[in-house]
Amino acid sequence: MLKSGLLELNAVVAVATHRSFRRAAIELGMSPSALSHAVASLEQRLGVRLFHRTTRSVSLSEAGEKFLIRIQPALREISAAMEAVNDFRETPTGTLRLNTSEGAAQMLMTPVVLEYLNRYPDMRVDIVTDRGFVDIVARGFDAGIRLAESVPQDMIAISISPPLRFAVVGSPAYFAKFSKPRVPGDLAAHNCIRVRFPSGTIYKWEFERRGEEQILDVSGSLTLDNPHLMIEAALQGAGLAWMNEFAVSSHLASGELIRVLEDWTPSFPGLSLYYPANRHMPASLRAFINLVREVHAT
């Protein structure tokens, strides 16, 4: 198949996945106009419209849906064949696509991702961060990185971080006005910065000490869905925040934030890298896993 033909087919899959020419163009490293031209050229040759387009939305036509069902397995086979040949190279080449959370990406960026690019200059790494869980197979990712407890059971999972902890933190200015909570129940008298999940659900703070568990639906005047905003609000004395220990470690070290209820926040299994069990592992992913294990062991 001609290279232009593969580009057009991959363009159709990307647009169908993202339902957006702009986001699909970013994934493929093309301009939106070039992507639109590729899809239009294929539609012209086929003599049918694969997408319904409006100024606000993009959706597959009936012909497009049937076309996508037929081409996706073939494209996966072509990609697998190319990756299998890549196994014979001394160093991997191509693009490694990972889906993860923002916090996990921050933890891995310097020790793993940047070192990976330094070791394998022919590689490119494309990281997409989502607060919500996504189907990595349907979205075309090589692997995902999430908390171990969140990994689907049908995936192969590899532990890639030490155990993690959460921390309840507040600023010195906040504790100048309010006494420090000594047990989780004391939080009822505090202004807590509540956490909203992508689904809209408000997270209930979880505590445990010596086998005793407490799950609290804390109250507060501020609800946020972004960890950077939560940290900023806590730094400004707006209330107590429930944060990943890694995310606030520098602020705890500098004294800008003070930790409370530490004996009620035990560690839990950390991050896992996961990928489909029934798919050929590309050389690029194998090299990434080996580096993660190397860093994890030190």
List the helices and strands and how they pair.
Layout: H1 3-18, H2 21-28, H3 32-46, E1 51-53, E2 58-60, H4 62-86, E3 94-100, H5 102-119, E4 123-129, E5 143-147, E6 155-159, E7 166-170, H6 172-175, E8 193-195, E9 205-209, E10 212-216, E11 222-224, H7 227-235, E12 241-244, H8 245-254, E13 258-260, E14 271-276, H9 283-297
Parallel strand pairs: 3-4, 3-5, 8-11
Antiparallel strand pairs: 1-2, 5-14, 6-14, 7-12, 7-13, 9-10
Task: Characterise this structure.
- The protein is α/β, with parallel strands linked by helices and 298 residues long.
- Helices cover 40% and strands 21% of the residues.
- The protein is built from 9 helices and 14 strands.
- The strands form 5 sheets. It has a 5-stranded mixed sheet, covered by helices on one side. A 3-stranded antiparallel sheet has the order 12-7-13. The chain has a two-stranded antiparallel ribbon with strand order 1-2.
- Strand 3 (94-100), helix 5 (102-119) and strand 4 (123-129) form a beta-alpha-beta unit.
- Helix 2 (21-28) crosses helix 3.
- The two termini are 46 Å apart.
